[in-house]
Amino acid sequence: MKYTISLRETQVLRLIAFENTNQQIADKLHISHHTAMSHRKNLLKKLAVKNAAGLVRRAFELGVMKIPLTIANGGAR
């Protein structure tokens, strides 16, 4: 499956990964609640996942999100 994720969708995906609600996403990106919901819906479809957990997993797979080095190394600095 080929898909393209826009810059705005990438921003929304990161905010979803940090547990933001649609309204919080709308407020932070200065968009309407409806637009935030549409971005989430489009991401679910484009990335072929069922829920926010799937979006977060896919964000890591795509490299949109990375595990901080301190966590990846068991907290070592």
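Next protein, fold it too.
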Amino acid sequence: MISFIIPAKNEEKFINNCIGNIIKAIDRWGKSSEIILVDNGSTDKTAEIALTMGAKVIKVKDGTIAHLRNVGAENASGKYLAFIDADCLIPIEWVEYCISTIDNPKVAGVGTRAIPDYRNSTWVERSVASLMADAERPDYVKWLGTSNLLIKKNIFISFGGFDENLITGEDVHLCKKINKNFLFFLEKRIFTIHLRESKTLYDLFKREFWRGSHSIIVFKKSNYDMSELPSIILPFVNYLLLLLSILFIFTFNSSYIIYFIFYLLIPVVLIFKKRKKLEFSAFFQYYIVAFIYLTSRSCAQIFEIKRLIKHS
């Protein structure tokens, strides 16, 4: 049995289609499953819609997304846990494909890339997807996001579930702990649609600021995994170069121009890091997205450092 776990708060706009796609995937697979919606104090019809569609609803007053997912896991009856975000649509083949791979005893979890709905997407969504979701990744990866993740329940429990002290990055933290003993497989034949990708540059800034708000803590909790070091260093270097560039702009001191040039080149480094094959016709759009991404991550890191110093 698979237990689908959906953390949600005020998701009535998306929950009907989310659960509907899960039901279609279950029907195609043809075996028993359950759907558990963990409601974090919704004031709309999220819980009512889920109930009418046959989901079990568990209400939680307040908690991190990690806590909501853990509550769902604690109440799950399945051998497998499928974590699905409420604004995501899994394809009809999702269960069939993922379950065929997870039967491997060395594999702990399986998931797919999450991409925007290209039929109704903006250039920002398409550029972010091209840089991030479509970036080349191996079949076996160190971590998978919980927008859609099928994981063996016994392994999930044995590694303690998600760290509820983390506001974000809890999926990276857990997967990297598990990855020391087991594998994670990225299923590339299908995609999951993420309906709430960043449609504007402002949306992108807010989302990446939130995602980067606990990057240092996640790095520390991962026992300083060196593979995560670039995500710490690049935003920090970007911030330092920004400060030195400001000196150039306001003082017109030619000795600072090299810092300004390097600051403008940092997004290019990110682009080529993510994209092995580059469509130069879209380079300017990639550059803007990479620039906003780095700026937001740099700001988040500075705020995180201030917070850590304050509570030290």
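About the second fold: The beta strands are 2-8, 33-39, 56-59, 80-84, 88-89, 107-115, 140-141, 148-152, 183-194.
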